Amino acid sequence: GPADNGDIESVLLSETEIGAKLDEMAARIDADYEGKDLLLVGVLKGAIMVMADLSRRITHRDVEMDWMAVSSYGSGTKSSGVVRILKDLDADLSGRHVLVVEDIIDSGLTLSWLVSNLRSRGPASVEVASLLRKPTAAKVEVDVRYVGFDIPNEFVVGYGLDYAEKFRTLPYVGTLAPHVYSS
Ligand code: PRP
Ligand code: MN
Ligand code: MG
Q1: HEC string of 116-156?
Q2: Domain around 120
Q3: Which residues line ligand 1 (CB under 6 A)?
Q4: What's the domain count of the chain?
Q5: Which among 3, 8, 37, 171 has the fewest CB atoms less than 10 Å away?
């Protein structure tokens, strides 16, 4: 559309579709965490939109928010599974019910490392909510309790997801036109 300069090939998930899915996810989270405290852990930066829109749909009131920034390092552009903490949580996890909030699970390596790291801190529970999941995630053992959409293995941007730090602010999830990454 005109707002994206032709860089978006197609809209995969509209703002309305995303909102409806977050309604369902929040309802399940409300039911599952009834009577428990809940700590939402957003993974910067991609998860910011999901965190903002999912957390506001959770009606359960005993909820806190915290953030982590992690970085995979290795030679390639793909996640190596070896992860470095750039910003750690402020919260102490002992005895807490932790729900990791992600935008997308691609190889699953980031999440797999993160979940075992968080589990080592003595929480009462660690679960994961991700708006998107790619088929490649099946190769790694990560149990994701709340998945919004299983999507094809295409490069997607928007709604927090970037290509070279661009496109995060789009309100929808779209596929990137090939001219953007081939130039
Ligand atoms: C992206 C995405 C997930 C992760 C998924 O983050 O937001 O956090 O990659 O990839 P994986 O399943 O293959 O590990 P990225 O490292 O690009 O950082 P960002 O959130 O700041 O964009
Ligand atoms: Mn991310
Ligand atoms: Mg990224």
Answers
A1: HHHHCCCCCEEEEEEEEECHHHHHCCCCCCEEEEECCCCCE
A2: 15-151
A3: 43-46, 79, 102-111, 162
A4: 1
A5: 3
| Residue 7 located in a structural domain | no
Domain-embedded: residue 136: yes
- What's the CATH code of the domain at 144? 3.40.50.2020
In the structure, what pLDDT confidence band is assigned to residue 2 with cuts at 50, 70 and 90? very low
Average the pLDDT over each of 3-7, 81-85, 155-159, 177-181 and give the range with the smallest value. Answer: 3-7
Q: Is position 106 annotated as part of the catalytic site?
A: yes
- What whole-number percentage of the chain has pLDDT above 70? 92
Residue from 43, 141, 157, 167 to probe ligand 1 pocket by mutation (most atoms less than 8 Å from CB)? 43
Which is the closest atom of ligand 1 to the Cα of 137? 12
Question: Please, is 165 exposed, middle or buried when counting C-beta atoms within 10 Å of its C-beta (0-12, 13-18, 19+)?
Answer: exposed
Computed over every residue of the chain, the mean pLDDT equals 92
Residue 56 lies in a domain: yes
Residues 6+ apart with CB under 8 A from 105: 111, 128, 130, 132, 133, 134, 137, 142, 144
Asked if the structure places residue 107 within a domain, the reply is yes
pLDDT tens column, 13-25: 999 999 999 999 9
ipTM of the complex: 0.98
Residues with CB under 5 A from ligand 3 (ion): 162
